[in-house]
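User: Predict the full complex structure for these chains.
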Amino acid sequence: MRAFIAYLRRDLWSPYVAGALLGLVAVMTLWSTTKLDNMPARLPGASGSFQNLAAYLGQELTSTQKVLTEGGAPITVPREGLEEQFIYFAFTMPKGITWQVWMIIGVFLGSLVSALLSGGFRISVMPHTTQWQTIFGPQPWKRWVLVFIGGIILQVAAGIAGGCTSGLAISGGVQLTPAAFLFIAGMFISGIPTALLVYRRRY
Amino acid sequence: MEPLDQSVWELGPIVVALIMGFLFGFALDKGGMTRYHKIVNVFRFTDLAVLKFMMSAMVTGMVGIYLLVWAGEVELTAITPTIPIKNFAGGLLFGVGMSLVGMCPGTMVSGAARGQLDYLIPGFGGFLTGALLYGFLYPTITDLFAGFKDYGNAKLPELWGLSTVLTVLVFAEAIILMLYLIQRLNLRRKDRLAAES
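Assistant: Here is the predicted structure of the two-chain assembly.
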């Protein structure tokens, strides 16, 4: 028991052990959501939850209030030219605290507990390793601008592909869907030259 | 008043989401996925933790899920459709972003929980902005990929006409062999970033 607690307090596990836990999470998620007959069977995923959250604003931006009959109550209608976008935000990926949003709340709590147990929790504004600073310098704003742009790229890319590293690569891969392996291939084919270009021989 | 077990039952999905999310987040942090350099360095072959983590998850999950399928416990319905050009193009764009900032949607949330404000503020803001942008581009993107072949929910064993048992065994063994080779190669190379983690 003490050895187990000591292991939970470690900063890093062997990536094989941590990965195996993630694999088990995928299995347990599918099993438990199949057993619950008040929801569809699901596997872990992250990117979809951001679509549900963004839809709060998306629905506002693509709709307008209109009074159709004289003296009647105004109703919500799509803005002209944005009908398809409205359908997306209202029905395809509707706003709401969906099952997936609850899952990323769980992800946040799990990582928080892990970081608190290991003492890794620390308020910081940018990576405190020399690796980032050698390439991009010590100014936090550069990191913040790049992360913001990177976030946009990642979320649009996940939308195009049909999921992200968790929802498509892992959850699709464990079910042997071709989509997952095509996504992983694409991710490495572009990720490797990007990293080489950013770093060259400087670090 | 509703009977107690009924309301507990209705909370089931949320409880499952929170518990599974919790373990998911715990695994991400213990695997080192909440750190910029860990993710970036997999693309530079100087730290292969991401690859080991993903492959280990893949083998465990694949074997576990197909055991449940063979036991008749689950059906594979939660599947991302395969539209090869679309999945691949999305992957290409995703790799650029991941390599630049060292995070992906799940690890952004996870990294924010370590107290890293660059994950929490521009990270979360960027992902939400991206989600909004994707919604606005949705019709355009749908049109762009409309003409390409769509395999729907097909899985590799069906496409290749192999039994699922054989495919799972071949994949699991191929991944384990790759992990073994990676481990061998890794032992021979000095990991100069080890001290930094």
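The two ends of chain A are 42 Å apart (CA to CA).
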